[in-house]
Amino acid sequence: MFNKILFLLLLMIISAHATKAQNTKTTLSGIVKDAKNRKAIEYTNIVVRQKSDQKFVTGTITDSTGRFKLVELSTGNYILEFSIVGYLDKKQDVTVGSLNTFLDLGEITLMEDAQTLNMVNIVGQSNVDGLSTKMDKKTFTLANNITQSGGSVLQAMQNLPGVTLQDGKIQLRGNDKIAVLVDGKQNAMTGFGTQTGLDNIPASAIEKIEIINNPSSKYDANGNAGIINIIYKKNRQEGFNGKISLISGLGSLWKRRENLPTIRPQFQATPKINPSLSLNYRKNKLNTFLQSDYLYTQTLNRNEFATRAYSDGTIINQQVKRNRTTDYTTVKTGIDWNPNDRNALTISGHFNREKIIDNGDIPYFNENLLQRLRLWQFVEDEVKYTATGSASYQHKFDEPGHLLNIGFNYTWHRENEKYFFTNIMSTFTGNDSFALLSDEHVADLSTDYIKPLKQGRLELGMKFRRRTIPTNMQFFPGLNSPIDVNAGGWADYKETIPAAYANYILETNSFEVEAGLRFEYVKVQYDVNPNHNTYQSDGYDYARPFPNLRFSYKLSENSKLSVFYNKRVDRPNEVDIRIFPKYDEPELLKVGNPTLRPQFTNTIELGYRLNWKNGNVNASLYHKIIDATITRIATQVAGSTILYNIFQNAGKSYQTGSEIAIQQELAPWFSFNASAAIYQNKINAFSITNKYPVPTIYTMAEESITSGNFKLNNMFKLKGQMQIQLSGVYLAKDIIPQGTIGSRFSVDMGIKKQLQKGKGELFLNGTDILGTLNTKRSISGNGFTNISTDYLETQVFRLGYSYKF
Fold first, then answer.
1. Which architecture does CATH list for 239-804?
2. pLDDT at position 129
């Protein structure tokens, strides 16, 4: 099956027809000097002509230092003509490529004698429908994603090629080990190494999303699946301007499955409200901006029905129903100051507050649902605060693209969580609770230097991070409590990471090379309560190089074949090693593991891109080798039905796959993009010991599965500035820790109309309009099996209006 699908994907690539690539703009610079005395020559005339027909394109003259700059050059072949009284004219061939947006030609010498023409390569950038031509980066503007307008950033990503959602997490190529950046920086709002908060960031606040499958050495080495960069909206128009919008919606319009008996109702007709305001004022050298968003939503966050069977013959039917209410407030503000053309300073602040209240019911029944064995009702009251302050300075040297960037970023994040539950048994009722308080402090200092060269550029940089997370957990047991009171107390997480990198990019007329090396030293210290009944203080450190290499061969002006290699790491997040047990449900506890160590990944990939007049295709084949694979393992303790779900290093695993994405405008009124992926996940046999609450050994045989997904987005442009989008997603059966997740599909639809001469915009959309997106899981462990289906809220209809002024 895998070979057949792979053959079809390759056949689609080969059959694509190339015409002419679309062009964007590039800046070329250099300095003109006397060939004998090396003095700069001012007022030299420079003319750019098309090589094919000698047609004039643009021109300029050198300044008092002999320097020149030519902007907005498109892809193509040109001739540069240099002339000034007293010197012989000089011509130079120029080829515009597709890699760098700035190129420095260096010195151009004029003399009385004739000189052989030199071939110089300039790099441009080509875009089709918002997708960049760079093989390692794909850029998507959310304004074109009508079906997900008004939702969260997490929801907006599910239609993007190569991206899938599972258990509230983003996956790239079936892997959730992703580094999530906000405006190019890690942020506690999205989590350092996790994806915290993505489901509550309003998509209305976001300008675009970048997906980087093969990051270069200038990025942090964390995240073996790649990087997702979320870029907030920022207006730089002159004068005062802004945008105001209001989005509302309803979800869970009908029950997908009735509750088990004797529990409280599940949420229905859940409201969604998202007002937002963006203001900007720019005059002369100063630009100020403010953006604020508020999101209120009720959600049937989980509605899972499960049957659990134990080796002693016991069968339990249960439901996990969680009604969630969320308030999310975000404010971002700052100033850009440009004292002159060479220097720029940006100071910004970002604050958000997230308030979540979960009300849940978890009933347990016998096999035939005639006897309720237990009812667990809970209230989870959680509030999170995040405050980020950033300062960045940029100095532009004489030649365009020659830059020095210095940045400082500080983040404070507080997690204040209270959990109250009522344990209703046949003979008693117990009331228990716990409280968690965690403060995270992260300081990053970075320096980046970029030097354009004649045929590429050089990138150098350093970064230093200091991160501390003091945490305190308190348990308050009631009557006959299942809480382990001795598992509470305090824990302090401390992380220090100095890093340096160098990255070199070369482009000729026929090939491109990018080679880089990042060196990181990481020291993690985890101090825990000395009275903890299982774990002791632990930590780790390593010093390792992380190389990256890309070689691309230009098959033609419109097509390119690339080979990638990189080495990356996934460091355990503080939550992954947090020693305190947390109830996912009364008989399933999540516990961290302070002995957890990083996993290291080596990736090799073959990529192909082809552009034509109204479309493009991207395809890739890749293979990943992962050492010390991080995964959760659930085990049962003898004499108890409680399962303990603990992170472990499970040895080696592998991922091999291919993907293809096609964009095409078939007519002025219709375009589409489609993507397909197929991959095989394999994990070697392993044996681990879950230490909490007592040592339990678990052994698993080798496991593998072939899975994939298919996505199709159709865009219709109608009269009256109206657009309709129809999207479909199919996810094949896939592997999860100790089991599988079933296949699933959904269909989304949206319509958008421009009003008030383009200043106003009205949209209506619906997600999972057929109500088919059910999540089915099958898990097996030491003496138990668990089969479940989650009928959580996936169908939501939204109406929104925005106005620009």
1. Beta Barrel (2.40)
2. 39
